[in-house]
């Protein structure tokens, strides 16, 4: 069963909604800004924060007292997508699934909760209202409660590959008959705790030299995935077709290029797409060795062709587990034609330092300016 | 072969549990009603009035993990990697054979590498956030629970996904493996769940009053709550055609599963929503309620869970079948819970018995189920329902059946 993406939204350093994201990407403007060091002490001076974002500010005071940042980002992101497609898309809500990618939920919430157990007068002097935030499926659960989404509610984690893994997981849910529509994407929050963990992890990794160079980003992107006839019945025109997702694994960093090349070749083969039909590549684009491995892989798998490369890192920084979701959004935000043949075929790739590579092959629908679904809202009313 | 005719079977089990490591010991444990409860020693419990749990004290990572440096894996990833190794060996599938196949590895979890996150939190408080150990930070990523498995087994053509959907995550992971095999997307699936006992989760459950002082007593009138446990359960699944082709013994067939979400409350379960999930699972598996020989319940032993869960069961079943909880023996192993329970179900089908609910004195009339108190019961088991509930109102119900030649079970 071929699956289509029939709506999408993003919440990013460019602000709220698909239109803000599209404008930022098309202008090639960086969303990274100087950090308020009082609010965010830590190893980084700059970051890609969603501007002026707070839970209470965007969702009201009611129900947000104990809501952490990653949950609030997720709830607003889902709201944006629902505004794009209309609330009737979730009216039959048992049929709608939500698949949300995460790094580790909110490491800030988790470690703050544990810290309270260490520092309180008694080890159980922790705030019970914050306990659910210390569990990784909290953002997906908050979205379900806030928007009454009662179908399968899944949380998926896999480092930089998370967004692609979420896409793959959601495709299995749909093909397995577990829901008729799936909201699928990934979110990350910026927090001081995440910043320090990323910094330490980078310093211990293969690209140690860049530990404090690449700024972190937050936000996420969310897609509506469904069967084409389901979209047609609802009067939604597809923005893209998912032709393939594929994953492979490597042991040593110097094998990454060969493994990713195999992975891309396998995806092309399963989709029946020739290498030269790929007109645009959206890589993770990590700095250092793994980034070079990724470039080499694409060049190898696509042969002599020279597709356009859309780079997310200079625009958004390192969005960790939201990276691949942003990469897909960047593809969807970019105007066709990508190349002279106008095939609309884009390749999204990732190389995760834990030894996982992945890719997705998509064919975007023609007419980028008209690609907005038959919507009744702009999707950026939250500001 | 069409999608609908592709059947999925379990041919290998890997178990790391508080009542035994390895299938043989686990089987003995659930058949004889062993209790895994002891005093928690993995973190400092001073200040808590009681701190019993179901820790594993005989797990030596290096005994099981061969290819990866065990110190590159946190405790939960050590469990999942070890259990995956066992499942592959138990299935009689040479590692080389598995490496030739396209594989899905899915590992459910509640807390990921929570033990490492506890350690990092303590270090941060003592020495400052600048002094964290990079290696511990790197291995604390949730994705590691699945990527550790592929590294340990040296798999290449593989999709590794961690599913942190809390305490129902094991069933989620098994379900997605089932979907992948049915659709012909992969040629083998290694699926299950893993978690390690940690201070964070213990103190949270303690604070909300759901930790039992001594023992876990599901469905008992005097039940006092959960005991936190740890471990991993991993299942090797393949298509029936693949299993028959290599002459592999079959534990059980996966008939179907269902997921839904209450979308009501962050922690309290909902009767109607769970009942709907059970009915969905029956429909997906193509069975009737009367076909179910026993239910492996989520059965945490809290007041709220057991009444709600048995209420949902009573709503769907005219006459509820025996309804048991292996948490009475192994505690609440969080993301591993429904995976270990699925392993228990597969063993029950093969061996012909219903595992007991131990520590049982008097059944709560509000629950009113036959929980097979204290002693396992011999039975001809054809179809089993494995329930899992999670924080955030997530329900996951898995249906396993005895493999029968030719026709669907």
- Total tally of structural domains of chain B: 2
- By helix and strand content of chain B, what is the structural category? alpha/beta
Rg of chain A, Å, rounded: 20 Å
Q: What is the CATH homology-level superfamily of the largest domain in chain A?
A: Thiolase/Chalcone synthase
Order of helices and strands of chain A: EEHEEHHEHHEHEHEEHEHEHEHHEE
Based on the model shown, name its key terms.
heterodimer; A: 383 residues; alpha/beta; Peroxisomal Thiolase, Chain A, domain 1; 2 domains; eleven-stranded mixed beta sheet; globular; disordered C terminus; B: 409 residues; PKS_Beta-ketoAc_synthase_dom (chain B); Thiolase-like (chain B); transferase (chain B); Ketoacyl_synth_N (chain B)
Verbal overview:
The complex is a heterodimer of chains A (383) and B (409). Chain A is an alpha/beta fold. Chain A has 2 domains: 3-233, Thiolase/Chalcone synthase (Peroxisomal Thiolase, Chain A, domain 1, 3-Layer(aba) Sandwich); 241-368, Thiolase/Chalcone synthase (Peroxisomal Thiolase, Chain A, domain 1), CATH 3.40.47.10. Chain A is 34% helix and 21% strand. Chain A is built from 12 helices and 14 strands. In chain A, strands 1, 2, 5, 6, 7, 9, 10, 11, 12, 13 and 14 form an 11-stranded mixed sheet that branches. In chain A, strands 3-4-8 form a 3-stranded mixed sheet, with no helix packed on it. In chain A, helix 1 (18-27) packs across helix 12 (323-333), helix 3 (69-85) packs across helix 5 (138-147) and helix 9 packs parallel to helix 10 (289-301). The longest helix of chain A has 17 residues, at 69-85. Chain B folds into 2 domains: 8-245, Peroxisomal Thiolase, Chain A, domain 1 (3-Layer(aba) Sandwich), CATH 3.40.47; 256-401, 3-Layer(aba) Sandwich (Peroxisomal Thiolase, Chain A, domain 1), CATH 3.40.47. In chain B, strands 1, 2, 5, 6, 7, 8, 9, 10, 11, 14 and 15 form an 11-stranded mixed sheet that branches. In chain B, strands 3-4 form a two-stranded antiparallel sheet. The radius of gyration of chain B is 20 Å and the shape is globular. In chain B, strand 14 and strand 15 form a beta hairpin. The chains are: A alpha/beta (383), B alpha/beta (409). Chains A and B meet through helix 4, helix 5, strand 6, helix 6 and helix 7 of A and helix 5, helix 6, helix 7, strand 6 and helix 8 of B. Chain A: Residues 9-227 form the Beta-ketoacyl synthase-like N-terminal domain. Chain A: It holds the Pfam family ketoacyl-synt. Chain A: Keywords: Transferase. Chain A: This is 3-oxoacyl-ACP synthase. Chain B: Belongs to the thiolase-like superfamily. Beta-ketoacyl-ACP synthases family.
């Amino acid at each position: 069963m071929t699956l289509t993406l029939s709506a999408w939204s993003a919440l990013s350093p460019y602000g709220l909604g698909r239109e803000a994201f599209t404008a930022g990407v098309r202008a090639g403007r960086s969303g990274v800004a100087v950090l308020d060091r009082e609010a965010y002490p830590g190893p980084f001076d700059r970051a890609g924060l969603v501007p002026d974002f707070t839970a209470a500010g965007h969702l009201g005071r009611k129900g947000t007292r104990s809501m952490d940042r990653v949950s609030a980002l997720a709830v607003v992101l889902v709201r944006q997508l629902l505004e794009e497609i209309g609330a009737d898309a979730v009216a039959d809500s048992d049929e709608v699934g939500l698949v949300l990618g995460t790094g580790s939920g909110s490491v800030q919430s988790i470690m703050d909760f544990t810290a309270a157990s260490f520092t309180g007068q008694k080890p159980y002097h922790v705030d019970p209202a914050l306990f659910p935030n210390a569990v990784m499926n909290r953002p997906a659960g908050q979205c379900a409660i806030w928007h009454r989404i009662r179908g399968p509610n899944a949380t998926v984690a896999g480092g930089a590959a998370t967004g692609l893994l979420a896409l793959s997981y959601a495709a299995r849910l749909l093909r397995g008959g577990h829901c008729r529509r799936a909201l699928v994407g990934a979110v990350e929050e910026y927090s001081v705790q995440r910043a320090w963990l990323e910094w330490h992890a980078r310093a211990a990794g293969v690209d140690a030299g860049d530990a404090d160079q690449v700024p972190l980003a937050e936000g996420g992107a969310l897609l509506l995935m469904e069967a084409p006839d389901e979209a047609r019945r609802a009067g939604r025109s597809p923005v893209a077709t998912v032709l393939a997702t594929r994953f492979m694994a490597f042991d040593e960093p110097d094998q990454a290029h060969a493994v990713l090349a195999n992975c891309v070749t396998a995806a092309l083969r399963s989709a029946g797409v020739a290498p030269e039909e790929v007109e645009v590549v959206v890589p993770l684009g990590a700095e250092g060795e793994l980034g070079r491995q990724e470039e080499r892989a694409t060049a190898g798998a696509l042969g002599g062709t020279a597709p356009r490369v859309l780079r997310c890192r200079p625009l958004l920084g390192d969005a960790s587990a939201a990276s691949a979701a942003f990469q897909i959004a960047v593809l969807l935000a970019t105007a066709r034609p990508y190349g002279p043949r106008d095939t609309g075929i884009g390749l999204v790739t990732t190389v995760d330092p834990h030894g996982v590579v992945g890719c997705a092959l998509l064919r975007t629908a023609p007419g980028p300016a008209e690609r907005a679904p038959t919507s009744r809202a702009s999707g950026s009313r939250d500001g | 072969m069409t999608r609908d005719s592709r059947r999925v079977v379990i041919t290998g089990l890997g178990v790391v549990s508080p009542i035994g490591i390895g299938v043989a010991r686990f089987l003995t444990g659930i058949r004889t009603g062993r209790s895994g409860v002891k005093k928690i020693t993995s973190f400092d419990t001073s200040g808590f009035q009681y701190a019993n749990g179901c820790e594993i004290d005989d797990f030596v990572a290096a005994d099981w993990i061969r290819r990866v440096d065990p110190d590159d894996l946190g405790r939960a990833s050590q469990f999942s990697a070890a259990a995956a190794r066992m499942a592959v060996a138990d299935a009689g599938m040479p590692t080389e054979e598995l490496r030739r196949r396209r594989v899905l590895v899915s590992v459910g979890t509640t807390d990921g590498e929570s033990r490492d996150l506890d350690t990092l939190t303590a270090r941060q408080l003592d020495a400052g956030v600048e002094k964290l150990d990079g290696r511990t930070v790197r291995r604390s990523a949730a994705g590691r629970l699945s990527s550790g498995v592929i590294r340990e087994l040296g798999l290449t053509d593989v999709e590794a996904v961690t599913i942190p959907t809390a305490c129902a995550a094991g069933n989620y992971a098994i379900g997605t493996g089932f979907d992948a095999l049915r659709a012909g997307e992969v040629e083998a699936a290694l699926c299950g769940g893993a978690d390690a006992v940690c201070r964070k989760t213990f103190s949270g459950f303690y604070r909300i009053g759901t930790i039992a002082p001594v023992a876990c007593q599901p469905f008992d009138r005097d039940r006092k709550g959960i005991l936190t446990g740890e471990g991993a359960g991993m299942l090797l699944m393949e298509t029936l055609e693949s299993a028959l082709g290599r002459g592999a013994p079959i534990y059980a067939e996966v008939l179907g599963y269902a997921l839904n979400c209450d979308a009501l409350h962050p922690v309290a379960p909902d009767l109607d929503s769970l009942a709907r999930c059970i009915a969905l699972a029956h429909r997906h598996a193509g069975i009737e309620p009367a076909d179910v020989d026993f239910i492996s319940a989520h059965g945490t032993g809290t007041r709220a869970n057991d009444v709600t869960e048995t209420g949902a069961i009573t709503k769907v079943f005219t006459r509820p079948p025996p309804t048991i909880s292996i948490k009475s023996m192994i505690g609440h192993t969080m993301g591993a819970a429904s995976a270990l329970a699925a392993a228990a179900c597969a063993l029950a089908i093969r061996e012909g018995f219903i595992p007991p609910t131990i520590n049982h004195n008097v059944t709560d009339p509000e629950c009113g189920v036959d929980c097979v108190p204290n002693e396992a019961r011999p039975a001809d088991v054809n179809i089993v329902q494995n329930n899992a509930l999670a924080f955030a109102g997530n329900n996951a119900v898995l249906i396993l059946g005895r493999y029968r030649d030719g026709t669907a079970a």
